[in-house]
Amino acid sequence: VDQGDSIPESDPADSSPTSGLLSNQVVPVHLTDEDFQLYYNGCCNATFWPLFHSMPDRAVFDEDYWIAYRNINKKFAQDTLGALRNLPQDPDNVPLVWIHDYHLMLAATTIRQVAEEEDIPCKIGFFLHIPFPPWDMIKIFPWHDLILQGILGCDLVGFHIEDYCINFIDCCQRGLGCRVDRGGMLVEHGGRTVRVRPLPISIPYARFHQMALDAPDSNWTDLKVHSKFITYKHYNFFPQVILAVDRLDYTKGLVNRFKAFERLLSVYPEFLEKVMLFQVAVPSRTDVKEYQELKEHIDKVVGQINGRFSTARWSP
Question: pTM score, two decimals?
C-alpha cells in the first residue's frame, strides 16, 4: 500500500491462519523504490540468498547494499517498538515479537536495546526460512559479526533442521567467541542465554491430500500435445509423467534437472515416448537481471531437448 492508504480487511471467505488479522492490527513499513532496490534486490537477494545457499560465487558484496540493509532493519525495529509502546501493560501477558527470515537479521539488536532502556517487556523469537550455512561461508561476509549479534538479540532462534542449528552455534563460537552448549543448543551472549532449536516446518499434508482426493479427474490423457492439436487419447498413448513444481530460482537446480532428463533419454532411448517431464516453474524476482537470464537459459535448454527428441505424437 502507498503511504496514507488504508489497509483493506481480509476476505471473509479466507480460511488461512492470518484471516482473522484486522487492518487495525497491521503496521505498514513504507520503503522507497531506492530502498527496495538496495535492500531487497541488493543485500537480501544478491548477497544473503546465494551466500546462505553456499553459492559464494554468485554473492555480491556491496557496502551500499549493506548500509541500506542496516537502515531498513532499524526502520522495521522502530515501527515494532512503536507498536509495543501502544500495547496495554499486562505482566501476565508479555508481548512476543516474532522476526522472520534473512531480511530482518539485525532488527532484534535495536528492539532489545531500546526495550531494555525504556523498560518495555517483550520476548523476541527469530526463524530463518532458508539454510544457515557453515562458518566457511558466513565468514566471507565482511559484517558477519553484526549478523550473528543481531540474531543473538533474540531469546529463541529457530532453524529448519539440526544441521543449521549446529552451523549457527559454531559460527557464534568461532566468529564472536561466545560460550556455547552444543548438547543443549545454547549460546551465551551479552549476559543472556539464547536457545537455538530445530523447528521443521512443512505444508499441511493432510489438507492437500484431501484436496487431491476431492478434486475431479484432470483427464490428463485428454490434454492436447503442445501446439500439435492432437491428443494422447487419440493414439491410445499414455506416457508416464514426471511432475515438478518449483520457483524459478537458480538454487532449485532446474537446468541440471533438464540436463539429467536429457541424459536419460540419450543413454536409455527405450524411454522415448514412454515418459515426459512436466515442469511448473513459478516466475520469481522478474525484475532481477540474473533471474531473467535464468529463464532465457531454461527456455533454450527446453527447446533443445524438445527439438532433439520430439516425435509426431510426443514431446519430452
Answer: 0.84
